Fold these 3 entries.
Entry 1:
Amino acid sequence: MARPMGSVRLKKANPLTLLLGVVLCIFILYFLISPSSTPSSTTRVVVDSARHHLSPPTSPYRKPKSDAAVELGPPPVTRYNLNNVTITADPIGNQEHVLILTPMARFYQEYWDNLLKLSYPHGLITLGFILPKSKDGNAATALLQQQIQKTQKQGPEKDRFKSIIILRQDFEPSLSSQDESERHKMANQKARREDMSKARNSLLFTTLGPATSWVLWLDSDIVETPPSLIQDLAGYSKPVIVANCFQRYYDAETKSMAERPYDFNSWQDSDVAQKLGAAMGPDDILLEGYAEMATYRLLMAYMATNPSEKDTVVPLDGVGGTALLVRADVHRDGAMFPPFAFYHLIETEGFAKMAKRLGWQPYGLPNYKVYHYNE
């Protein structure tokens, strides 16, 4: 029988085809709405270490061994409330972070050994170093890295510091020799201390983090301090406070060990010094400890009386940087180390003047001693 024109006969669908179609639709829907997952080979590795060198939790910052094996992802957006950063006379009790900064031209093993003896929790300490690009600087960098490797990877956890930062200077040093006799010549002081200021500022501006409460400036040739140095200085609740730097030496006359004042940059100003400065040109600086420029300032180096009277505190107009503790907010307010004549002062003494101009009075401890390496 003939079929009517225009009619269509539907072919019965195969059940297997319908099943495959349903499975395919389910797979497509799952692919579209399911969250993307990361392959196991690139899963973020959770380790007990810092994710960032400026804000770690308790353990040191450890760089991943293989960038290809660990997917760190984009850095997070982090909010910091500086009002929550405490700066108190009980820094250990309040778990306050300390930044120890050291410009280094030569490496002294005694400096590092003394650093390890500090009783302040090392998990709250970040170390920062800056070294010149010179023969001595290269040698010091190699020795420093050896000790860092030994401490941070091989040493016990309690000895490891929160993080360590090493910078290399981006300018050539003015002095070719770092021998003590050469670097203390009066003719070399302005150029030398300009370099020191630039190094200190580079180190400070690069390492000061939002969680830092205190900054301890500790020279690389300071080889002996009380183990409680940080908490001792912080306990005086002063915005800027400096220890008295001495040097141990062998006295040939008495045939015994003795000590002598070393740092003359911590002082109280005098009228004579003020008059000398008033007669100087705008780029001239006053220097302390030289017979050619007698300022008659009161030097803290000669204020030491009784070692048992460590609590003696005196206000200062100039400070040295051998062992100098500074509240972090003093630096955050803008107090830095002028590499130019600032009221005829430069470097750490210029810093003291700048801190005072910002309303932060520096202080010193005549009977609290730290000791400089004797070359």
Entry 2:
Amino acid sequence: MPRLPRDFYNRDTVTVAHELLGKILVHQIDGLARMARIVEVEAYLGPGDLAAHSARGLTPRTRAMFGPPGHAYVYLIYGMHHCLNVVTEPEGSGTGVLLRAVEPIANIEGNTRGPGLLTRAMGIDKRHYGHDLCSDELHLLAPLHETQEIEIVASPRIGVPYAQEWADKPLRFHILGNRYVSRK
């Protein structure tokens, strides 16, 4: 399966979010590849998006989100869950796509229905902050053949009521009928 090139990420965030669905997330740990199919994502559209961390501007925490496309923005929520975002668009945009749920393919134990659960199951944490997603250790692949047609559902993002009008925007995308999609 071909690795996603940097140009894949250097595009409109909503387009990238749609096209990440069905792609394969791979994390190599001690020679073992943990692999999972992406089934749910959320788009964050930069400083004007009140739900995005980048709405607060460039800070030590958000530095990676303003970095080059195709890198990981990993952060801790509730003091216990890591979340993985894929940085999109040109450097300085502050845009990204949160990976919300994955369908296990190989070498994964545990629940993957939610952003904190998927990172735990995949072994992804703060050490991956700013990590190049075109590297050997942590990357995304395009399946050689789609086994089925993907129908995408759009809905409001989850857990961002503070974001005013941005809370209701349909920027959460998931594969219709996939049993690994998280619940609201």
Entry 3:
Amino acid sequence: MSTDEESPFSDLEASLKKSAAALREADVPFLLGGSLASWARGGPETRHDLDLMLKPEDIDRAVEALGAAGMRFEDPPEEWLVKVWDGETLVDLIHHPKGTPVDDALIERGEVMSVLGMEMRVMALEDVLVTKLMALDEHSLRYESLLAISRALRERIDWKDVRARTTESVWARAFFVMLEGLGILPEASPSTGGRDTRVRVLTQPGSAAANVG
């Protein structure tokens, strides 16, 4: 998500229906992403903006289709998305999320679901979490929605996959520590990577050094 402002959920529903219909009519493939992708599977309700994932080469056609449906285009300074406004409701068209490319493989991993009476592809939960975790940095460190999704849908998520794909992020690693501490996930087995983990105890000069196994 790119904003902290909230919209009535009914407005998000209406904008999703309008956007999905316009993109389908223009034959533009997309995924429902962000927190709405978890909501569609029984996760927590969201009141933030609407995230649609599109391949970079399809952005211009998407903007044209949504503009024809009465939405207003905005070109933000960020290079990983463009925005359209449906009245007061923001729709983010995300083409370069951090952590995974938007390509045919990502779209194919999405699950075809009935959302608000319309069939559409919904981003895989693992991909939702990877993109959210990889977007965290010290200036934007919000774990609330991630914790809510994890609590609600933990049994449906391939946590091994998510952990492996986000291990380079210190913020993602910290998130897994939180999940384990809160009992949402079992604690990972400690791994030493084959290193000698004996504690070497320093003694006074003249004494024998002791190794504690």
